[in-house]
Amino acid sequence: MKPRYRNTLNADQWLTREQLKAVLAYVRKRATDRPVRLTATDRLIVETLVYTGIRRQELCNLDLQDLPMHHGHPAIQVRHGKRGSFRTIPIPKALAELLWLYVKQWRCDDGPKAPLFVGRSPDYGRLKAKVVYQKIVRIGRRALGIHLHPHVLRHSSAMVNYGCGRNIHSTKEMLGHRDIRTTLIYLRTTEGIEAAIANEMWDALETG
Fold first, then answer.
1. Active-site residue 55, yes or no?
2. Is 154 a catalytic residue?
3. Is the pTM of this model over 0.85?
4. 26-51, pLDDT tens digit by residue?
């Protein structure tokens, strides 16, 4: 059976600029008001999903060696993507600095092959995808009063990146799609969105 490709995203499958800003503001405030590993982890999870568009399992698979401070480039390396794929995703300076600070504060005692995100206690091992899902659902309910899940953040990241002028091929590579027909959904969804609005949205996320 041939795969089916959707034409556009539904309105509830991606977040508006205001919604994204509200989610980021919520996790940033929690991390500032209560600076413990749990709130810092929640913030970094959301920021990483928003700025890279990676899948939740790819997020859980990140090791310390995949971060900029280990390989010397402003990017994260996804070594264990879908179907075992590998890709490098450029990231903004703000996220690179946040990653560095998080590792310095909470993961500095571990080697480069250790996971970036661990459970509530480091003894629990690598953070599970279902826990990431539960975290995003809780954050969405508290920040927006809606049912939010990680794939909505992935769609939102793709919409912003493509709307800011990234071509469809680089968006495909960022998301790790095998077939560009999967990525074309963002082109069709963003046809009515002005590039200036998307750029304003991205700037607001970085400085918010």
1. yes
2. yes
3. no
4. 999 999 999 999 999 999 999 999 99
